[in-house]
Structures are given as structure tokens and as C-alpha cells.
Amino acid sequence: MEAALEAGINTFCTSGHYLDGLEEEALGKAIRAASVERGRLVVLTGNRVKPGITKQSVLADIDASLRRLGTDRIEIYYVSDIRSPAELRVDAFHEAIEEARQAGKVGHLGLSGHSGGLQDVLNGAIDDGRFEVFFIKFDYVSYPDQDEILERAAQQGIGTIVFKTNAGNRQREIKDLEAGGLSYPQATIKWALTHPAVASVSVTLTSFAQIREMTAAVGARPTRSEVVISEPPAKTAHGRTCEVIACERAGINPAPTKESVGAGFIPARGNLNFAGASSSTDVLRPTSFLKLRSEQR
């Protein structure tokens, strides 16, 4: 925890149903042990929308999370593992969130998911208007319309934190490239942050070495080689290759020129999320959209 904070990580993500709440307890103990000012941290946690859910049961879940975390507020409380738009519109859940928000226990409402129906869920959440944060899977193969959906979300003031950017753990396939100094996980983090609607990337960190590796990926523009590795040349529906689209999005000429290969800059939006022992976190810029939404309310 202390090493993560020193590296600039300030947002920690977990869930009430991970290990039956033990993960929240571990995160709470780590925060207290680090003696960090609570105002420096952004904590995300949440729970599933269960069948037969009531306002009272949701409030009880929130109170249990607060107790396990040892805090009096949760900056972002999210619906976890959401699979269909119908789960977005459970009145009892929203009534509970509003009451918790009025009591100062919850700051912002989010959703999390990585199922096959995620695109429908995100579009439904944008149309619903009550969700403020997306905490979702983001890679170059799973959801063909995700770029456009996230751009529309950003226009509505919804912030996005992403995870599983490595598209099925493909790093096992490119050990030879890693031996040459190119880390596939680093490349996928930098690739995700080229999207203007992505505020942060969530990763699981279990060692000091991983903290150093992942934080080094923040604040640097991916080279053409890294873009090509993280987004291989698969044909899209429009006949263009992912390589060309990725290079365009990163502001890199897809043709390997002296100017484009190895070019570097500090992106306007650079953020990393940390997940230690299964709990996640965030670096550098996590509260910008939260501040905006607070001012709008």
C-alpha cells in the first residue's frame, strides 16, 4: 500500500462479494496501516443486484462494506458483474443509493461488467442517466462498438475505468518480445490510455516489481511497435486493420517512418489503477470526472 501511494496510486477498487468481504477487510487494514489522509484516496466497492433485492438489503450491504473498510464513505459504489440492461433499472437499488448518498455514505454510482452483453448494458446506462462511472473490461477484440459507446458516455459526464486490457492474457504468446525489453502488459496499459474517454486502467499488482513496471507505463506514448503488438492486424468490418486504427488513435503514422517509430510524449490523460491481492486501485487523475459530476449536481 505504501509503495503504491508513493508511486502515485490513489484509487483502490474491491467488492463486497470478493472472498465474502475479506478483501474489503484487508484493504481497510492496509489503508489504516499506511496512515494516509483519507481525503487522498478514492475507494471503489460494490455488490451484485441479487434477485428479490430490497432497499433495506442494499443499505445493509453498503453499511457492511463501510464497516469492513473501516471508513465512513465510499467514493464510488458500483453494481458488479452486471449482465443485462434490466439490472440497471431496479427501483429498490436506486432508492437505497439515493438514501446512502444523502447520508454521505456514497459519493457516485457506477457499474462493472465484462459479459457478452456489456455493450447493451453501457448503452442502457447512458440512456438511464443515473450512472456516473463505468468500471469495465476494455480490449481490442471483445466489443466492436465500445470506442463509440465510451465517447458517448464521456459526453454525458460518465467517467470510465477499465480492466482486462490484455485481451485474454496474450502476453504468454510473446515472451520473445519481452526478452527484448518490450512488456506486453505495459503496452496494453499505454494503448488503453490513448482512448480519450478512458480515465484509468485497473491492474492487479502483487509485488513491488509489478508496481514499478506498471507505473512506468503511465505517462508515455506507445511506440508504433507497441501498438502493433497490443492490437494485431485483424480486419475490421470496414476492411481496415486494427493496426491502422490503433496507430491513428495514438497519433502515430501507421507507416514506420523515422518520425513515428519511437516517438514519445506525455498524454493529456494518463492514469493507472492498482489491484493488490485481488483488490484494485487507481493512479494520477482519478477524481477529475468525479469533481465535474459533483459540480453538476
Layout of strands and helices, then pairs:
Blueprint: H1 2-6, E1 9-13, H2 22-34, E2 42-47, H3 55-69, E3 74-79, H4 91-102, E4 106-113, H5 118-128, E5 133-137, H6 146-155, E6 159-163, H7 175-179, H8 184-192, E7 198-205, H9 208-216, H10 224-230, H11 242-249, E8 272-276, E9 280-283, H12 288-296
Parallel strand pairs: 1-2, 2-3, 3-4, 4-5, 5-6, 6-7, 7-8
Antiparallel strand pairs: 1-9
Helix pairs in contact: 2-3, 3-4, 5-6, 8-10
Estimate the strand proportion. 15-25%
Give me the count of strands. Answer: 9
- The CATH superfamily of the largest domain is known as NADP-dependent oxidoreductase domain
Overall helicity: 25-40%
Spatial separation of the terminal alpha carbons: 32 Å
Put simply, the count of helices is 12
The largest β sheet comes out as: 9 strands, mixed
Order of helices and strands: HEHEHEHEHEHEHHEHHHEEH
Q: What is the CATH third-level topology name of the largest domain?
A: TIM Barrel
Mean pLDDT: 74
| Overall spatial form | globular
Overall SS class? alpha/beta
What integer value in Å does the Rg equal?
19 Å
CATH class division of the largest domain? Alpha Beta
Low-confidence region ranges: 169-180, 232-297
